[in-house]
Amino acid sequence: MRIDVVSIFPEYLAALDLSLIGKARQDGVLDVRVHDLRSFTTDRHRTVDDTPYGGGAGMVMKAEPWAQALESVLDGAPAAERRPTLIVPSPAGAVFDQAMAYELAELDHLVFACGRYEGIDERAIDWARGDFDVRPVSLGDYVLNGGEVAVLAMVEAVGRLIPGVVGNPESLVEESHSDGLLEYPVYTKPSSWRGRDIPEVLLSGNHAKIAEWRRLEQFHRTAERRPDLLAGVDTGALTKADLRA
Ligand code: SAM
């Protein structure tokens, strides 16, 4: 997968050199390119923002540097990867979730436009619809200072779903949100720690019983912490044991 990120703080994206995403880049599984929006300005001060029409607080990112940056990304993209998806992080976007992560992981080319200040001149986003599938996406219902943190989160969530990024693909299967429920509690050695023992069933060696216990814990935890998720569980896929839970 090819990923381009445009930002006025390219250093912010240095974390993409670390851990599993960094290794995937080294291994050529992910081709991540970070671009400095200011390189696409033409004035001495490398200006990327200006005052908002209509008045009000803050500054707005100018359309032209964005158009130049996105054209440059398109020019550098292999012919087969024309019409990439442009993710515009925004608190006014559709909320990012695991289903969206799976959907984006199927694509060849993602481009992320990191806004700052009061956001990007809307005309740049409209203009980009000519060449990109544009998706405004929110990390959640709160406001960040810029899109970079959102991009780090999205690239990690999407990247780890791409084959070859996570060493053992099985670890993706039973995670929170993979089946609409939260994950069961997990434990490691020692079995007794500071007066706390792990649930006995985990020492039983009985895989069917362990699976049943885990599934029950998934339901209990989801009901307690995120009851809203239960409404989305596919009831047709529930087992008899699930229904007992
Ligand atoms: N004035 C904008 C509004 O109220 O919708 C908020 C601008 S915010 C201070 C600056 C930038 O941070 C946004 O353009 C976006 O790139 C990013 N951002 C802020 N909150 C975000 C969120 N919840 N999800 C994704 N990106 C966010």
UniProtKB/TrEMBL annotation:
NCBIfam families: PRK00026.1, trmD. Residues 1-230 form the tRNA methyltransferase TRMD/TRM10-type domain. Specifically methylates guanosine-37 in various tRNAs. It comes from Arthrobacter agilis. InterPro entries: Alpha/beta_knot_MTases, tRNA_m1G_MeTrfase_C_sf, tRNA_m1G_MeTrfase_TrmD, tRNA_m1G_MTases_N, tRNA_MeTrfase_TRMD/TRM10. This is tRNA (guanine-N(1)-)-methyltransferase. It catalyses: guanosine(37) in tRNA + S-adenosyl-L-methionine = N(1)-methylguanosine(37) in tRNA + S-adenosyl-L-homocysteine + H(+). The gene is trmD. One of its GO terms (molecular function) is tRNA (guanine(37)-N1)-methyltransferase activity. Its EC number is 2.1.1.228. It comes from the Bacteria. CDD domains: TrmD-like. S-adenosyl-L-methionine binds at G115, L139, G140, D141, Y142, V143, L144. The lineage of its organism: Bacteria, Bacillati, Actinomycetota, Actinomycetes, Micrococcales. Keywords: Cytoplasm, Methyltransferase, S-adenosyl-L-methionine, Transferase, tRNA processing. Homodimer. One of its GO terms (biological process) is tRNA N1-guanine methylation. Belongs to the RNA methyltransferase TrmD family.
